[in-house]
Amino acid sequence: MTSAAPAAVSCLLVDDHPAVLDAVSRVLAGAGIRIVCTTSSGADGLAMLERRPADVALIDLRLPDMDGFELVQAIARSPVPARSLLYTGYAGWREAGKALAVGASGVITKGSPLSEVVRAVLAVGRGGTYVDPLLGGQLALQGIHWAKLSERDELFLEYVAQGLTDERIGEELHLSSETVRANVRRVVQAVGARNRTHAVAVALRTGQIR
Questions:
Q1: Quick check: 129 and 188 in contact, CB under 8 A?
Q2: CA distance 4 to 106
Q3: What is the pLDDT of residues 74-85, one digit of tens each?
Q4: Main-chain phi, psi angles of 47, to 5 degrees
Q5: CA–CA distance from 13 to each of 39, 56, 75, 84, 192 (Å)?
Q6: Edge-to-edge strands of the sheet including 34-39?
Q7: Dist. CA 192–CA 203, nearest whole Å
Q8: Span 14-50, pLDDT tens digits
C-alpha cells in the first residue's frame, strides 16, 4: 500500500499591487500551492479567510486599510486563523523582529527570488518558520548577551528556522518525532520564548543561529 500524498498547502495573498498579486499567485500555483484568494485589502482578506480557510496568509506590510502587523494579529484572532508570512519590500531587522513578535510565522522580502517565496510559503504552511536570510543576518547583528545554547540545542533551532517538521528533524538526527518535540519545547523554555517562532526570532537576534 502506498502512502497518501501530502495535501497541498493553501495560501491567501494580500497585497495592494496587482502586478505582485498576479506574478506571485502564478508562481505559487505553478509550484502546486493552492491559491484560495487574492485581495488588496486587509479587511477583505479577513472576510475571505472566514469563507475560504487557508494554511498561509502571505501579507504585504503596507496595505490601504491597515498595516501588515495589524493584519497578522487580526488573523491570529480569527475563528479560522492562518499562519502569517509577511512579504514586503520595506522590512528591515526591526520590522522583521516586530512581525515575529506579533505572531507572524515568517518574513520574506520582495527582493527575494520567487522560487524562495515558494520555499517560504511551503515551510510556513507545513508548520515551520521562515526568516529571509538577509533579515536574519541583520537581526543577528543586533545581538544581546544571553545564556549560550549547546550545539545540539542550536541545531534544533536551526532546523526549526529552516521550516523542517518534527518528523523531518527526527529523520536528520535519527530521533523520534516525540523526542524532537520534547527537545524543541525545552529549548523554547530555556530561551524564555513564548513559542517556537519566538524562539527562532530570539536566536536570530542574539546570533545563536544565522
A1: no
A2: 28
A3: 998 888 889 999
A4: -65, -45
A5: 6, 9, 13, 10, 32
A6: 34-39, 10-14, 56-59, 83-88, 106-109, 130-131
A7: 11
A8: 999 999 999 999 999 999 999 999 999 999 999 999 8
Tell whether the torsion through CA atoms of 151, 157, 161 and 162 is positive or negative: positive
d(C-alpha 75, C-alpha 57), whole Å? 9
In whole angstroms, what is the distance from residue 204 CA to residue 47 CA?
34
0.70 exceeded by pTM: no
Q: Would you say 57 and 49 are in contact if contact means Cβ atoms under 8 Å apart?
A: yes
The H or E element spanning position 157 is: helix 151-161
What type of residue sits at position 46?
L
Contact 76, 101 (CB under 8 A): no
Distance, in Å, from the CA atom of 187 to the CA atom of 62, rounded to the nearest integer, reads 34
191-198 contacts at long range (C-beta below 8 A, 24 or more positions apart): 191/146, 191/149, 196/129, 196/160, 197/100, 197/103, 197/104, 197/105, 197/129, 198/100, 198/101
Q: Which domains, ranges and CATH numbers included, belong to the chain? A: 10-139 (3.40.50.2300), 143-205 (1.10.10.10)
Closest among 96, 117, 89 to 11, alpha carbons compared: 117
Closest by Cα among 135, 181, 134 to 160 = 181
